[in-house]
Amino acid sequence: MKAMLLAAGQGSRLRPLTDRIPKCMIPVGGKPILEHTIEWFARSGVTEIIVNLCSLPQVIMDYFGHGDRWGVRITYSLEEQSLGTAGGVKNAAWFFDDGPFLVWYGDNLSHCDLDRLYRFHCAKGGLATIALHHREDVSQSGIVGLDDVDRIMRFLEKPTPEQTFSHWVNAGIYVLDPAVLGFIPAEGIPDFGRDIFPRMLAAGWPLYGYRLTDAEGLWWIDRHEDLTRVQQEWKEEI
I want to staple 8 with a disulfide (CB 3.0 to 4.6 A). Which of 32, 54, 183, 191 is the partner? Predict the structure, then answer.
């Protein structure tokens, strides 16, 4: 399975740190966030990786090169302007084969069991499998409603307390069938959670939710207080 790491974001809420380095290169546990994920990929047998870049791209390319040090092969997809999460994947469509591929948001950390995730995706037979994280405060997240076989029935971005129907949120880790690329427009700045997945759901296409276990975990970094929390939690994890 090939993988795409989304690393084109500016991380504006983490300035001034991100004035000098991309968000995914902020150190956690003594290494850049992105390095932890690449090491996890290599350990999981995922060695063909493409990384999209926009903000301060040379910092990432200089650090990782072609990936030899980590036992992977890294290709880069440069964007003059950020194309959005889905737009970045569409722009790199030439990289993928005719089988399912992995998409991982480069500013998140997880121990997601990629073999288990892939087997779940194949067993369900949907076009997309979205890893989900259970979160108490969902006010700044996209929540996902599931049926009793984990098929996704609805999405809602940033719900109010009265609107909250689920505490399972999009973790930014997907397995996608190549057919998903056909749902992504070539223009604009399309986002998976805001645009593509709701559109596919409305059209009746099967999407499934993979519930991350506590052992797999998810560490997200949106603001400075998140970074402080993750640096402490990740230090305890390792």
Answer: 54
pLDDT of residue 5: 97
- How far are the Cα atoms of 70, 73, 212 from residue 55, in angstroms, in the given order? 23, 22, 30
Q: What DSSP designation does 92 have?
A: T
pLDDT bucket at 238, cuts 50 / 70 / 90? very low
Question: Looking at the whole model, is its pTM more than 0.70?
Answer: yes
pLDDT, position 226: 67
* CA dist 94 → 126, 147, 178 (Å): 22, 34, 11
Q: Are 105 and 111 in contact (CB under 8 A)?
A: no
Work out the pLDDT band at 110, boundaries 50, 70, 90: very high
Residues comprising the chain, all counted: 238
Domains annotated for the chain, with CATH where assigned, are 3-237 (3.90.550.10)
CB 5 within 8 A of CB 106: yes
Whole-angstrom distance, CA of residue 218 vs CA of residue 131? 10
**Residue 21 Cα distances to 33, 44, 148, 224, angstroms:** 12, 27, 43, 15
The CA distance from 125 to 176, in Å, is 11
The pLDDT tens digits of the residues spanning 174-200 come to 999 999 999 999 888 999 988 999 999
Cβ atoms of 40 and 95 within 8 Å: the answer is: no
Tokens of 36: 């932890």
